[in-house]
Amino acid sequence: MRMSRRLALLMAVLVPLVTVVTAAPAAAGPRGDDRPTPPSWLKVEDGVSQPQFDLANAVEETLFVQTEVDSDLDGKKDRVRLQLSRPGETESQGIKVPVIFEHSPYRYNLGDAENHNVDFSVLPQEGIQPRGGDHGSSSGRTAAATTRGPAPDLPGSLDDYWVPRGYAVVLGESIGTGFSDGCPTVGDMKETLGTKAIIDWLNGRAPAWNEAGEPVSADWTTGDVGMTGVSYNGTLPNQVATTGVEGLRTIVPVSAISSWYDYYRANGMVRAPHSNRSGVGENGFQGEDLDVLAFFIEGPRLEKCRFLTDALLQYADRTTGDYNDYWDQRDYLHRAKNVKASVFVVHGLEDYNVMPRAFASWWSQLERYDVPRKIWLHKDGHGGPRGTSDYQRTLNRWMDYWLFGVDNGIMAEPTADVQRPDGTYEKYADWPVPGARATTLRLGATSATEPGTLSVRPPSGPKPRQSFVDRGRELDTDVALLPNPETANPNRLVYVSPPLSSAAHLSGTPSVSLRASVDNRYAANLTAVVVDYGPVGSADAPVMVTRGWMDVQNRKSVSKSTPIQQGQEYTFTWPLEPDDYMFPAGHRIGLVVVSTDMHYTLRPLPGTELTVNPAKSTVSLPIVGGTRVLT
Predict the structure, then answer these.
(1) Any catalytic annotation for residue 231?
(2) Distances from the Cα of 283 to the Cαs of 139, 438, 471, 526, 590, in angstroms?
(3) pLDDT tens for residues 223-264?
(4) What is the tens place of the pLDDT at every residue in 509-522?
(5) Among residues 231, 255, 342, 561, which one is catalytic?
(6) For 199-203, which contacts have Cβ atoms below 8 Å and span 24 or more sequence positions?
(7) Which of 103, 274, 378, 382 does the annotation list as catalytic?
(8) What's the pLDDT tens digit per position in 332-341?
């Protein structure tokens, strides 16, 4: 996860407007807890706290908090470093303030690491090693070590925005990174507890010292904490929330991971994150994995922490791609039942770095356990929403509601905000949009070679099988294999619906079920892409709506690879990435089936042959209004 590709902060500054609000009665908070009562000094206008304190008078401290873990196994509990800024009035007037907390592995002293080779003669799960001299594209990571000199405020803009509004801001450094002790364990419980320690200190449950070694307490805070951050910085709030730590009132995870397996794997496949939805234009993060990320964030600790990065490589299992106990330790979905904080999920619908599955799976689990929640889906890629003051105002109101107890009605508003390509937002009661129903489209073909059809009704007439040959290492899926759906192509299969009589709103997680065989290998990639095709004969470029991948050896379980027989048909069923997309009237829905996906999957030599039985294959789309919309 490169710092240059991952946004570290998202906060923009609002124009200050000031008035005074009287305290409102406390309302029920997360899981029955009471929200705080707004202090009498807090200035609010229209339910939003306003700048009232001078940042130039802020108190800044650099501290070291003792954690519960010893990640580098040196016999001493790790200490994590933090920098904080709080209104000067916490000293001069004795006011107590809540905390905006961002923890990060990216603060200082980043290292260099080379990505893994992704080009093979045949896929490694067939037991064949990478071909000698057949090198994959590897992109090293370089970042100069930095130190912080005197400055009028903290790095970034969180303190610029929040401290004048009566919040303290804490910037923490993950275990094994920056100037904290230990080794980076990337997503496991040690990293989680290392982050939790700062919340414990803010609530009087953990010790801390300043740079002179003097003990320091947080007697200036209410102990109420809201965590936020983007990418890895947004993943850490998810992690800590699953501990149920007291004092964590809310989290705002932006482009955040909910399962590291889903970040680096897909349905049994070793799959790379990318920087954008289509993958066109650059190679993304092919070959990155847990150990590469650990190398990057641990900086100068390379030899000290080699025992850990070697284990990350071994147990992450780049051979089979199977889900195992190591990945389970880095999966927060099954621990969502412990979340006591409210959650404001923010994600880009075109984020194919931390892919949409990350937010959709987390959102579903939060609903299952009745966690107070809100979701904001924007039209862009990795990071927070761009160019909108509505989001910043909403975020401000969210923090004010949960950390100051401002009765601004935010929880009575529609739960979901979804941005369309033209930049406008639509509000919905929930997400997926209520009324979205799994709608089955059946694949059909009348020829062994010509493009096929998608229809809500079973195809009639001939039911031939259709074959194609993988050339994914040589051909970019989006550039070479998605266009021209009316033309046969030996390296892909394409199925297209009739023109839509009305617009169709996809909201949720599509899935594909293919009856197919691998004819000359014992392993193969499978990739399915849902495409928006313009009217017949139009010059409109195809739009990649969503895609998904699977390893044919994981057709029974994501946790166990099962060999296949060449030429034998199996049913392969897997989810695609969730989305919220409008197909315009007159356009056609397409499904493109390929094997290797150049920018995402491992890449064997070309030549794998696959055969699909369209008459026994389907794609399921979550369409608002269901089947009637597509008929």
Answers:
(1) yes
(2) 9, 33, 17, 20, 25
(3) 999 999 999 999 999 999 999 999 999 999 999 999 999 999
(4) 999 999 999 999 99
(5) 231
(6) 199/101, 199/225, 199/240, 199/245, 199/247, 199/248, 200/65, 200/245, 200/247, 201/65, 202/99, 202/101, 202/170, 202/247, 203/246, 203/247
(7) 382
(8) 999 999 999 9
* CB-based contact 55:30 (threshold 8 Å): no
Give the active site residue among 291, 351, 407, 579: 351
CA angle 501, 421, 430 (to 5 degrees): 80
CB atoms within 10 A of CB 617: 26
Rounded to an integer, what distance in angstroms lies between the CA atom of residue 500 and that of residue 588? 6
Tokens linked to 526: 């499978």
Question: Does the pTM exceed 0.70?
Answer: yes
* pLDDT tens by residue, 281-294: 455 789 999 999 99
**Residue 306: partners with Cβ closer than 8 Å, 6 or more residues away:** none
pLDDT at 14 over 60: no
- The structure tokens 């902060």 sit at 9
Annotation marks residue 476 as catalytic: no
Average pLDDT, the chain: 89
Give me the domains of the chain, ranges plus CATH numbers.
30-121+137-428 (3.40.50.1820), 436-630 (2.60.120.260)
